[in-house]
Amino acid sequence: MTQVPARDAEHYALGTVGVSKNFGGVQALHRLSISIPKGQITCVIGPNGSGKSTLINILSGVLPMDSGMVIVDGVGLRTVHPYETPDLGITRTFQDVRLFNQISVMDNIMVVLTERKLWPSLFQRSKSEHRQRAEQVLRDVGMWDKRDAMAEDLSYGQRKLLEMARAMALDVNIYLFDEPFAGLFPQMLVRVKDILKQLRAREKSILFISHNMEIVRELSDHLIVMDSGELLVEGDVDEVLAKQEVIEAYLGA
Predict the structure, then answer these.
(1) pLDDT digits 0-9 by tens, 63-80
(2) How far apart are CA 84 and CA 80, in angstroms?
(3) What is the pLDDT of residues 156-189, one digit of tens each?
């Protein structure tokens, strides 16, 4: 992890400075510089292929950046590795839900709270505070009654909730949610919105991707619009969505 001095730690939890990422001849991100305010909900929108998921993958260390810096609490990082992100106060979910299917809902949480490798965690003696924390996060997402169910037997929406509970179990300060509302029925949409609101009430910093403009307007304190791997505009949600360049590039009007 290479660190360089940065600034704005007082107001911004996370950001990028001049981040670029190429896949062969395709430029996914081009000198992207964004800021994610502390204790607020930030949404990233943009057409398909605009670089939204690539951004989250770089912020969480899943992908290396070709150039630029990721800024975490005012410190600039030229490299981020996935195993470093919990220590940096960052966790995430994926658009394609990633769980341990062959173990229970409760054990999926315990894996996160104890040893971070699957098999050692199953044999590690759990502490009472781990079980209390697991119970709390499962209650927070409305999954306590499913604690003994196998993850593979859950519905799609329940799997989404369990992945969010796994992220929340770490109790970090920065949460990255890649398409948390995609494919959910209305009842689950309400539950996931409530989870993001709960996190904001706890002064957590949240970045999520969505194509649902109604949800974007309802939840977002800060909005980032991307197009072709570049920042188009960012700021207050209503002001951003009223800009002509956003209407033309994203809303197609």
Answers:
(1) 999 999 999 998 999 999
(2) 7
(3) 999 999 999 999 998 899 999 999 999 999 999 9
DSSP state letter for 98: -
pTM of the entire predicted model: 0.90
The first and second tokens of residue 218, run together, are 């309802």
Query: CA 168, CA 93: separation in Å to the nearest integer?
Result: 10
Radius of gyration for the alpha carbons in the chain, expressed in angstroms and rounded: 18
Find the helix or strand (DSSP H, E) in which 215 lies: helix 213-219
AA identity, residue 234: E
Distance between CA atoms of 241 and 235, rounded to whole angstroms? 9
Contact 160, 184 (CB under 8 A): yes
Token pair, residue 16, equals: 């990028």
Residues counted in the chain: 253
- Strand order from edge to edge, sheet including 174-177: 90-93, 174-177, 205-209, 41-45, 222-227, 230-235
Question: What is the set of domains in the chain, with CATH numbers?
Answer: 1-89+172-253 (3.40.50.300), 98-169 (no CATH)
